[in-house]
Amino acid sequence: MKDGKGAKVSRRNFLKFSGVTAAGAAGMLGGGLSGILSGPREVFAKEELKVGILDPYSGPYADSGREQTNGALIAVDEVNKKGGVLGRMVTTFQEDTATNPGTAVQKAKKLVDEVKVNYIVGTVASNVGLAVSALCQEKKVIYMSVGCHSDDITVGGKAHRYAFRPTCSNTMLARATASYIADKFGKKWYFITSDYSWGHTGRDAFKKVLAGKGGKVVGEDLTPLGTTDYSSFLLKVRNARPDVLIVSLYGNDLVSCVKQFNQFGMRREMQIGGPLNGLEMARVIGKENNVGYWGMPWDVTVNTKGSKEFTAKYKGKYGKIPSWRAYLGYIGMAELLSGIQRAKSPEPKKVILALEGHVFDGLKSNRSQWRAFDHQNIQDTYCGRAKSGAEVKHADDLFEIVSSKKGEEVAHTRAENPVKLEAL
Amino acid sequence: METSLLISQLFNGLNLGLLYVLMAMGLTIIMGTMGVVNFSHGILFTFGAYITYSVAARLGYWAALLIAPILVGGIGMVLERGLVQRVYGKDPLYSLLLTFGLAMSLEELVRIGWGTTGLPFSPPDSLNTFVDLKIMFYPLYRLVVFGFILLLILALWFFLERTTMGKIVRAGIQDSLMVGILGVNTKALFTLVFGLGAFLAGLAGVLSAPITGIMPTMGDNVVMPSFIVIILGGVGSFYGSVVGGLLLGIIVAMCNQFVPAVAELSMYLVMALVLLLRPRGLFGEEGLFE
Predict the structure, then answer these.
(1) How far apart are CA A357 and CA A370, in angstroms?
(2) SS3 for A288?
(3) CB contact, 8 Å: A255 with chain B?
(4) So what's the pLDDT on residue B213?
(5) H or E stretch at A34
(6) pLDDT score, position A56
(7) Of B23, B215, B220, which to mutate for an interface test with A (greatest number of A Cβ within 10 Å)?
(8) How confident is the model at residue B286 (pLDDT cuts 50, 70, 90)?
(9) Which of A30, B124, B128, B161 is 20 to 30 Å from A93 by CA-CA measure?
(10) Beta strand pairing status for A271-274 and B130-132?
């Protein structure tokens, strides 16, 4: 059936790990010989370049985690096909965070201490990402926080020199989306928010834009991660008669809420929107129920040569259209590997210097950049409209980009983010 | 506060509660009869939803509504015969570990069979609309589920109170050893009871699928409330689980309305309160799990 089954992953990991151990043992034997012949440098060069991939393959964000890993593997394929990085083949080690900060930190420790990786790429939920980020700073390992949108990955005291964020911050998404929604549908908003760091910063970013436009918050509720029935909240929302319902929910939570929003017939009464939505959720929401205006870091309809090539490669390998999670996995891994190549060294400190300030083709209309002072990827940020009913031409034709903002217009300015990353 | 909103929340709470009732009734008869705390109840719920998805794709929703719970009941019986019956009479820890392990392995099986991603599923077209109840618009599907579960509770009541088979089941809950001594084949009785519990869990899964969508972890969210319902109502008490379930639904809905911050906590607070004041639950009988 579909690719990406939890059980297979761990088995594959196991095989890979034992394979690598065997290869390592063989390498040591061979290295002894070649060491006599040509010195130790050769031995080093033949070693594989290990990268840890840490994504949720179980828990409420499992679909997103699988997409991110799939995208990252496309970047690895590309590089290995061209002979690897610094002449070394890239090998990935995948671990499941189970969308749980404790599990994720444990797995990250395993990757760093046992597998000896110098780089970790991945994670979806921001609370998980922040936990992994703190560990990576301590271990001096580069962390590509692929899919965490909570502001504090790159804003404020939790940002650090070893963490980079390939995706947009919540503030970027809100500024690209909230003003569009406010201008078009009205300024009386109700908020349903997932009760953890990402949900909170998403809501706050939307509120800030709303306040700037002189709008009004008519009500708000926090819901625990993993809520499946939103009916009692939706009854409250309807009673408050807002113009727009902003849902800072993600994954299964978002799916359940949007489905029930439709079931209660609220679609004719108000608009719905929020910081994030994407293909892997809209497919489950179903085309009849797909509705609203959402922040999106990328979409398959982004009309650039790079995006089309990436889409073709992804379809070729996995047989389906990539979601923006797959895009982020790809960008995170591709940029890490290109950074290592430019640094001419696998040494994390040198790679960080190669990444900082680097301008690159992020497959979008304008070029993307790793901003040096906070390690945020400054990039085009989109507002997508969910398509439904007859306008959906094929199974994955579920979004249309209605507004695109340049990264500099929506990201925190230097004044708004007075973060000071530590010296290397 | 508008009274119409209050009534809507009350009604919605009852509706939520009925789903807990369905889950808790199965759990409570299994616990009462065999003394097994069945942690695999949630995954049986999930199986109900997934089987519905596969059957509905071929034969339509109504056929699935009939077939899926029966299949899940069958799965339950096979599990009981193959595994669960081996731990009867042993330390409760054995059955706890066994059913917990079962839940985890069966969830992996769901991922292998149907994929890790959730599946789209909506109510049948004829029910995918909403009705004007004057005080509010309410989804027709949820109303139908409401009526359906009420009818089912009546049917179960009839089975337990008015049929010989039902009387044996009730007697088993009271004292299964004595029932055996009186000549009833308790081995078959236990299989039947486990199958009935699984059937009810599967049915709850079938009914929930169109509301929440289908995902491998969907059972996790209903298991905990179901256990709380049993503690509220009293282990082994059919009526206790009905009253406990409805009560819990209303409490959660009211908390969501007035004090959303404690909505999740409220369940556990109520449970703690009942345990303090009346440890055997509202309708619990003396001597059962005490």
Answers:
(1) 5
(2) coil
(3) yes
(4) 85
(5) helix A6-38
(6) 94
(7) B215
(8) low
(9) A30
(10) unpaired
Give me the residue from A63, A228, A235 closest to B5, CB to CB. A235
Mean pLDDT on B252-274 = 86
Mean pLDDT across chain B, nearest whole number?
Answer: 89
- For chain B, say whether A59 makes contact (Cβ under 8 Å): yes
**Cβ-Cβ contacts under 8 Å for B210 (sequence gap 6 or more):** B61, B121, B122, B123, B124, B141
- CB–CB contact A2 B115 (8 Å): yes
Convert the pLDDT of each residue in A120-159 to its tens digit: 999 999 999 999 999 999 999 999 999 999 999 999 999 9
A232, B16: Cβ pair inside 8 Å? yes
Whole-Å CA distances, B228 to B28, B30, B178, B220, B284: 11, 15, 29, 14, 13
Cα–Cα dist A147/A131, whole Å? 14
User: How far A389 CA sits from the closest chain B CA (Å)?
Assistant: 14
Rounded Cα distance, B244 and B250, in Å: 10
Contacts with B218 (C-beta within 8 Å, 6 or more apart), sequence order: A228, B45, B46, B49, B205, B208, B212
Length of chain B: 290
Give the whole-angstrom CA distance, residue A323 versus residue A215: 32
Helices A324-343 & A62-81 angle (0-180, nearest 10): 40
Higher pLDDT: A198 or A8? It is: A198
Residue with tokens 């990444």: A355
Tens of pLDDT, residue by residue over A27-39, are: 444 444 443 444 4
Shortest CA distance from B218: residue in chain A: A228
According to DSSP, residue A152 is labeled G
Nearest residue in B to A67, CA atom: B117
Closest CA to B94 of B149, B50, B36: B36
pLDDT band at A7 (very low <50, low <70, confident <90, very high): very low
CB of A231 within 8 Å of any CB in chain B? yes
ipTM: 0.82
> Given CB atoms, is A241 within the 8 Å cutoff of chain B?
no
Contact A244, A272 (CB under 8 A): yes
Taking the Cβ of residue A11 and every Cβ of chain B, the question of whether any pair is shorter than 8 Å is answered with no
> What would the two tokens of residue B61 be?
């929703």
User: Nearest-CA distance from B89 to chain A in Å?
Assistant: 34
